[in-house]
Design goal:
The protein is built from ten helices and no strands. It is mainly α. Helix 5 (119-126) crosses helix 6 and helix 9 runs antiparallel to helix 10.
Length: 259
């Protein structure tokens, strides 16, 4: 690469970093100006300063950390169960044609149904128990991970599988060392997508009825016309989802280092 091209690439990289650093403060500043300009109703569209005060009051009240832990526990448990089930069944349907013929048509019918559509029936089935909320998060995560794993297993080099079979490799060892590791890049993409989906489904889960959680607090604030706290809850939910996504992306890069 020539000196000119290296210099241009370096300048572009610095500019990208600068834009990334300034984007949030710039957005916040424009938001503050618009909210205080009188163009919009400040009650319905509060400025960031009002949102910040609402968040501080939420934290000082002691409710914030209780709501945070309630929401995170639902996301973590639902993600763990849905991801584990999705990987196991994805390997089975991707590797064994008979299992795929049995389960794949059913999964493809159920997969497009959004978790929020289950809220009425979940309330009937489980009432306000945590089981219903867990079901909704698991539903959203499971099909995303299953499909990614299923496709990943089908993309594994068949030559490697045949070679392992010729060498007499036991089926469990082949599934672990060849099939699962070969599909790992696809699985990590599915898992990362499922991290975000678990937060989307958290909204449906907590709307199904609860007494603690970030979405629950947003709903209570909306009923009381506390738009500052509504915005604060949305900001907290977005920040949590962003941190979870970036954390998983970092772990995935280390797990799939050869990609």
């Amino acid at each position: 690469m020539s000196v000119g091209r290296r210099s241009s690439a370096s300048a572009t990289a610095r500019l990208s970093v600068l834009f990334a650093v300034l984007s949030v403060p710039a957005f916040t500043g424009v938001w503050e100006l618009v909210a205080r300009s009188g163009i919009v109703n400040a009650v319905l569209f509060p400025p960031p300063s009002t949102v910040a005060v609402a968040i501080l009051e939420w934290i000082r009240s002691g409710q914030f950390f209780a709501d945070l832990m309630a929401s995170l526990s639902r996301v973590a448990a639902g993600f763990a169960i849905g991801a584990a089930g999705g990987i196991v069944l994805g390997v089975l349907t991707g590797r064994f044609r008979l299992v795929s013929s049995l389960l794949s048509p059913l999964f493809h019918i159920l997969r497009p149904i959004p978790p929020v559509a289950f809220v009425p029936i979940v309330i009937l089935w489980f009432g306000l128990s945590e089981t219903g909320k867990l079901f909704l998060v698991v539903w959203g995560v499971f099909f995303t991970v299953w499909l990614a794993t299923h496709i990943g297993v089908q993309k594994v080099d068949r030559g490697l599988i045949r070679a392992a079979q010729m060498l007499g490799t036991p089926q469990p060892q082949m599934l672990w060392e060849i099939v699962l590791l070969g599909a790992l890049p696809y699985i990590t993409v599915g898992l990362r997508t499922a991290v975000s989906i678990s937060f989307y489904t958290l909204v449906a889960a907590e709307l199904a009825g609860t007494f603690a959680g970030i979405v629950y607090r947003i709903e209570i604030a909306q009923q009381n016309m506390q738009t500052g706290q509504v915005m604060g809850g949305l900001a907290a939910l977005g920040l949590l989802s962003f941190v979870a996504d970036r954390s998983f992306a970092t772990l995935a890069e280390r797990a799939v280092w050869w990609r």
